[in-house]
Amino acid sequence: xxxxxxxxxxxxxxxxxxxxxxxxxxxxxxxxxxxxxxxxxxxxxxxxxxxxxxxxxxxxxxxxxxxxxxxxxxxxxxxxxxxxxxxxxxxxxxxxxxxxxxxxxxxxxxxxxxxxxxxxxxxxxxxxxxxxxxxxxxxxxxxxxxxxxxxxxxxxxxxxxxxxxxxxxxxxxxxxxxxxxxxxxxxxxxxxxxxxxxxxxxxxxxxxxxxxxxxxxx
Length: 218
Description:
- The chain is built from 13 helices and no strands.
- It has helices at residues 13-26, 28-37, 50-60, 65-77, 87-92, 95-100, 105-120, 126-130, 134-141, 149-158, 171-181, 189-196, 203-213.
- It is globular, with a radius of gyration of 18 Å.
């Protein structure tokens, strides 16, 4: 039942204070990073529905943030919006339109599959997801084309606010851990997962700090 072991959402101030105390006690090296960075400022975006949250994650796959944001906004502009579009928009768009926004062929196919499943009603609603544990959500959503474990973990963290998610395949998290530990190369997902067991049940918070580590001078 990963993600449900702690009541509350990752952006709750009381939960965050408790998380910082326990993480510092469990991992003194991480404690030094938290002291440098300051309070955790992870933002949970409650405004996005499931389609838009997953669509955004698809667009952002394997791209730097600024480039991905540009493509996402170009896609939205196809439908007269600044930063949003619907399943019906994607289903009705021509391939050439989506390509003009900068979407690769694979991302077009992934967005179309997501849109079709949403319009058919085969995906759970956001309230239904709230009642599911993390692993069940991952199992359910990874049936969508182009949606892998990492993509669902981003949804768990930044849309559902789950507190105990460690995306061990994420480059930024791995690089942050490498910098923090003074390693010569990126850690393997397996070794990061093993070390991260000491961060439970607040691995989302630890992950956020590892991302911040990549922004610091070392």
